[in-house]
Amino acid sequence: MSLNVLVTGASGYIGGSIVAEILSLKRGGTLGALVIHAAVRSLEQAQSLTKLDVNVFQLNLSDETAVTESLLSNDIDLVINNATCIDPQIASSLISGLQKQREATGREVFFVQTTGLSAFDENTNWPFGEVKDTDNVYGLERQSRETYVVREVDTFVIEQTKKAGVTGFLIFPPTLHGRGSGTWNQLSPQIPALIQASINHKQVYKFGESRDATLAHVSDVAKFYGQLIEAIFLGKKLPAGEDGHYFLVSHVVSWWDIMDRLAANLHERGLVTTASTKVWPSDEMAAESVGVPTRFAHSIWNSSPKVLCEKATIIGWKPVWTGESFLNSLYQEVDDFLELGLPKSSLLHSLKPVSGHDMN
Ligand SMILES: NC(=O)c1ccc[n+]([C@@H]2O[C@H](COP(=O)([O-])OP(=O)(O)OC[C@H]3O[C@@H](n4cnc5c(N)ncnc54)[C@H](OP(=O)(O)O)[C@@H]3O)[C@@H](O)[C@H]2O)c1
Q1: pLDDT digits over 122-181, tens only?
Q2: CA 160/CA 234 separation, integer angstroms
Q3: For the chain, first and last CA: distance in Å?
Q4: What stretch of H or E contains 97?
């Protein structure tokens, strides 16, 4: 069997790492017959991918006609959408294109949406406390869809895929760390933004109450996607649609421990004046320092979703990173930031237009 897969946001941190992971599975023979298509936004991003064994093209994901044309002309049966989890229009164009592909070929088609565990954090008004990915996550998100844009889009994806006869999956990574293996943006925004803010203030700040960060290394998350694509490729029947929610937490570390370790690292390099942390004087100052609207500061840098991950093990996912190895790698995170600067990504900027919609 051959399978054409389209990875959107392929120049991004997660999308780029997924492309690298499936290319290595292809080289290893496991996914030898897979053809990888990569959608990006700009010419520069496209150029960064041209050396890889992928078919790269620029695509406006909001343009339903252009998206459908690309899916049909490249015979794509599987889309992994990493571009955004806050814009229903993009998910809608991709799902509608897959529906046309199914109608044209009579084959099963698949839509995988990368979303995020912030949907289950009390900072985003999640009202139900701890949740397992084997619970009725669809039903719970549907009941609280109006209070957070990510839950709204998650629910929309499940409903649209069902209507369109597309097999749908929602993948929920936690806060990610580590250097990505893509060709364009290799950094997640959270830790670099904290490092930049600390260097600007010559001081590491933290929020007043320490909560537990749920985390995973980007390489472990990319491995999950490789395993998911392999399972789809081999025709395995996996929980999908209303049951298609997969949480990917690998370890939990307190935000204060992260900030303390960061302060020690930055102080050792002379980038802050003290190895001690201080509490942010106000949420407004915190938000301005990391460059997001105030309402997002806690949900990104003090998030603590209480989740239990059970489904990912079905396809054999076993993350290798631990809380200890993460804390030990913070020195490397600072090195990566000093080498690469802030992420080449519009992710944090894209929060500005939706801030009015968000947690009201
Ligand atoms: N990083 C994390 O820790 C994390 C954790 C959980 C969930 N997530 C979610 O996972 C998804 C990917 O995150 P990421 O960290 O990989 O972000 P990223 O590095 O910014 O990657 C997103 C990519 O999608 C592209 N993109 C965004 N909007 C687009 C559009 N309208 N049309 C075409 N391309 C578009 C971006 O291009 P430009 O650079 O040109 O904008 C970028 O290359 C996001 O939905 C994010 O919220 C991320």
Answers
A1: 999 999 999 999 999 999 999 999 999 999 999 999 999 999 999 999 999 999 999 999
A2: 25
A3: 48
A4: helix 88-105
Tokens 């490729």 sit on residue: 233
Structural tokens at position 213? 């960060």
Name which of 157, 73, 154 is nearest 110 in CA terms.
157
Distances (CA, A) of 323 to 80, 247, 252, 298, 330: 28, 17, 6, 21, 11
pLDDT in tens, 242-279: 999 999 999 999 999 999 999 999 999 999 999 999 99
SS (H, E, C) 29-82: CCCCCEEEEEEECCHHHHHHHCCCCCEEEECCCCCHHHHHHHHHHCCCCEEEEC
Q: Which residues lie across from 279 on neighbouring strands?
A: 206
Ligand 1 center from residue 269 Cα (angstroms):
31
CA 157 to chain centre: 16
> CATH homologous superfamily for 3-175+217-247?
NAD(P)-binding Rossmann-like Domain (3.40.50.720)
Distance from the CA of 348 to the center of ligand 1, in angstroms? 9
pTM of the predicted model, to two decimals?
0.97
For residue 284, give both structure tokens. 């407004």
Sequence ranges of the domains in the chain: 3-175+217-247, 187-214+251-303+320-351
Rounded CA separation 245/134 (Å): 8
Q: Which atom of ligand 1 is nearest to the CA of 188?
A: 1
What distance in Å separates the CA atoms of residue 171 and residue 80, rounded to the nearest whole number? 10
- Find the 171 Cα to ligand 1 centroid distance in Å: 14
Name the phi and psi angles at 167, rounded to 5: -75, 120
> Closest ligand 1 atom to the C-alpha of 175?
3
